[in-house]
Amino acid sequence: MPNFSNHPSKFPNNKTSIFSVMSSMARENNAIDLSQGFPNFETDARLKELVYKAMKDGYNQYPPMNGIPELREQISAKIEKLYGVKYKVDSEITMTSGATQALFSAITAFVRPGDEVIVFKPAYDSYEPAIKLNDGKPILVQLKGSNFSIDWQEVKEKINDRTKMVIINTPHNPTGSVMSKEDMQQLEGLLKNTNIILLSDEVYEHIIFDNIEHQSASRFPYLAERAIVCSSFGKTFHNTGWKMGYCVAPEELMKEIWKVHELVTFCVNHPMQRAFAEHLKNPKNYLSLSSFYQEKRDKFLKLMEGTKFTAIPSKGTYYQLFDFSEITDEKDTDFANRLTQEHKVASIPVSEFNIDKKDNQQLRFCFAKTNETLEKAAEILNRI
């Protein structure tokens, strides 16, 4: 037998994702799963029919590496209409196997040993492992206060000649906060006269509330010229299991991303691309999303009014944080486990995303669920 201890792990300190842990615990305990971020309702029936039609019509072989032209054209038109910038259809748009693959490919394309990458915490848990896998160094900046604001002076102090990239996420997972126009202008000022790349995770761009306007990096000229913007059809169209996303970037950057993309996956699902190309022709299919999810957010908050959980209403995404400090002094990980095992509602402890796992006694709940599911969960949480 070979001795695999001679092949040490490249991720010796990397544990199973908290999403996998809590979802598995939810299944084992037959709990209502408000932990992992996916809807428990169906995607649009017409969109599924479009995928089936594309299969029947014979679109079952490799598409172009960067995606079919029809879909890239629709994406370019959407971005131009929403954010006022036109990306070149042939050289600045690429379809990916979910936004996570876009993020990984972008990091791998540019981060070299010793490069520093600024990451705002709490953060989606794929950023730092990808940086470390490429022998880069994550430079962590904790979001501040109950509104999870960015201390731009701290960011300025952490930028140096080793800074290769800054990663932002707006609307933000897990907090539900949203970067303002002023935030983006501050960032633009910091990066304007540098060669630093901006990696902008905007997968929840169409899920934003209270008439707030999404501030895409594409809107700001000195950001757009250096920005790789990643988006997700899975989040937008309630089909996370399809793993369909895309990224846009200036041609010079995209050429390097292609070198990784070609090796990682080469191309992504052809019939689904045909379906999305047709689906995007009706802007209502994505512009109606904010009101759809705001109704769910408001319903969930209303259902939780009688509890001892305290909320700052989410500004975007389909996640809501609740403070539970009036209920127990337990660590958030312990309370999340007990909530799942004893009360049968699964959530995500936010400390898992903070610097040094700082525990602010907050849990993240996903409200991308049917009204029936939200009502059942809230009924349980009202009894705690």
UniProtKB/TrEMBL annotation:
One of its GO terms (molecular function) is transaminase activity. CDD domains: AAT_like (cd00609). Its cofactor is pyridoxal 5'-phosphate. Keywords: Aminotransferase, Pyridoxal phosphate, Transferase. Residues 31-380 form the Aminotransferase class I/classII large domain. This is Methionine aminotransferase. It comes from Autumnicola psychrophila.
